[in-house]
Design brief:
Blueprint (H helix, E strand, L loop, with lengths): L3 H4 L2 E4 L5 H12 L11 H9 L3 E7 L5 E8 L7 E9 L8 H16 L3 E7 L4 H8 L3 E10 L17 E9 L6 E3 L6 H10 L4 E3 L12 E7 L4 E8 L4 H14 L4 E7 L11 H4 L4 E6 L7 E7 L14 H16 L7
Parallel strand pairs: 4-5, 8-9, 11-12
Antiparallel strand pairs: 1-2, 2-3, 3-4, 5-7, 6-7, 10-11, 12-14, 13-14
Helix pairs in contact: 2-3
Length: 342
């Protein structure tokens, strides 16, 4: 016999005219503490639904009440991958498998539309979201420490009380056949990246790197996320001044008071294969993970904490591989100078 609760639920695509539904769902689970301010702005939500940079599905109870939501977020509606996020289940309906049902429907849409896959930032404050992702076939690719402000709360979920910033586990779920790619991991993280490729069924040809042409100037792009109080540095071009460029940008962000700084490199760039280990040993950026298929290849993410700290005891995992990966991240953090309370 089928699950009578599940049978009574209908899954629907959320249209722009019903943007208020998402806002109400967020309030029901998070109050006003959700860490993306735009989800409380009806015009911003409607615009994303209209231009399809957000694809949303909702779970509706027999009386029409929306009791769950999940969505795919992309910078452009042409992007081949997206972030599966805004997973919300009404507190009174938790325990009814609504999250996996919604995410399975979203994965089906991705497959129908030819989207390669989706990644998810699952809170590590509790294991439940991670367990649900694993049951759907998603696999871990990293842990981003201090990613979420401590003020975010989860109604009716028993989490460890902490004043520290919260961390997330990154998951990947392929929804279409993936291309074979060449990857250039730095030698000092090659082993763990190869393990991640194997764990995530990513077919990659590992090649040694090639140094950037001397005289080329590095090009960085920085995105500040004020609602998280963190920042993201993307290395668009690696030059002979790379270390100085990263050091200068990091110092600027620290002076502005950002608590967590993330540093992204393209693994499809041959220069990434010869990244200097001083990025870790001197600048204090430690391993975070990989983001598959993000920029015509994979992204390698490093992280640095400023006037913030995280404790491994406050972070939950949902698999042996996840625990092993988390311990590697913390080992690299321990060996990195000036990442935490500096």
């Amino acid at each position: 016999m089928g699950d009578p609760v599940k049978a009574s639920i209908t899954i629907e695509r959320l249209e722009p005219t019903r943007a208020n539904v998402l806002i109400e769902a967020i309030y029901s689970s998070y109050g006003d503490s959700y860490d993306h301010a735009w989800v409380y702005d009806i015009e911003a939500v409607a615009a994303r639904l209209e231009n399809q940079t957000m694809i949303s599905f909702v779970a509706c109870a027999p009386d029409g009440q929306v009791v769950g939501h999940t969505g795919l977020l992309r910078d452009s509606n042409k992007d081949p991958v997206g972030e599966s996020g805004l997973a919300v289940v009404h507190p009174d309906w938790r325990g009814n498998n609504l999250f996996p049902t919604l995410k399975a429907r979203l994965a089906q849409w991705c497959k129908e539309e030819g989207v390669l896959g989706m990644y998810s930032e699952a809170t590590a404050a509790h294991p439940y979201s991670q367990v649900a992702n694993i049951h759907l076939g998603a696999t871990e690719t990293g842990f981003f420490l201090g990613y979420i402000p401590a003020e975010v709360s989860y109604k009716k979920i028993d989490t460890k009380k902490t004043s520290q910033r919260l961390s997330v586990a990154l998951f990947w779920l392929a929804t279409s056949e993936l291309p074979t790619r060449t990857s250039y991991p730095p030698t000092w993280h090659r082993d763990v990246i190869e393990k991640l490729y194997e764990h995530n069924d990513l077919t990659r040809s590992i090649s040694p790197g090639v140094e950037s042409i001397k005289g080329i100037t590095s090009l960085l792009a920085t995105e500040r996320a004020d609602d998280h109080n963190d920042a993201f540095i993307t290395v668009l071009r690696q030059g002979s001044d790379l270390m100085n460029a990263i050091e200068h940008e990091t110092a600027t962000l620290k002076s502005e008071g950002y608590n967590a700084i993330y540093l992204d490199f393209e693994l499809s760039d041959p220069a990434t294969g010869v990244l200097p280990i001083e990025i870790h040993d001197e600048l204090g950026f430690f391993f975070g993970g990989i983001i598959p298929e993000a920029k015509d290849g994979d992204i390698l993410r490093f992280q640095h904490l400023h006037q913030a700290n995280v404790d491994i005891q406050d972070i939950s995992t949902a698999s042996d591989f996840g625990q092993e990966l988390l311990e590697y991240v913390f080992e690299r953090k321990r060996l990195a100078p000036n990442s935490g309370q500096d």
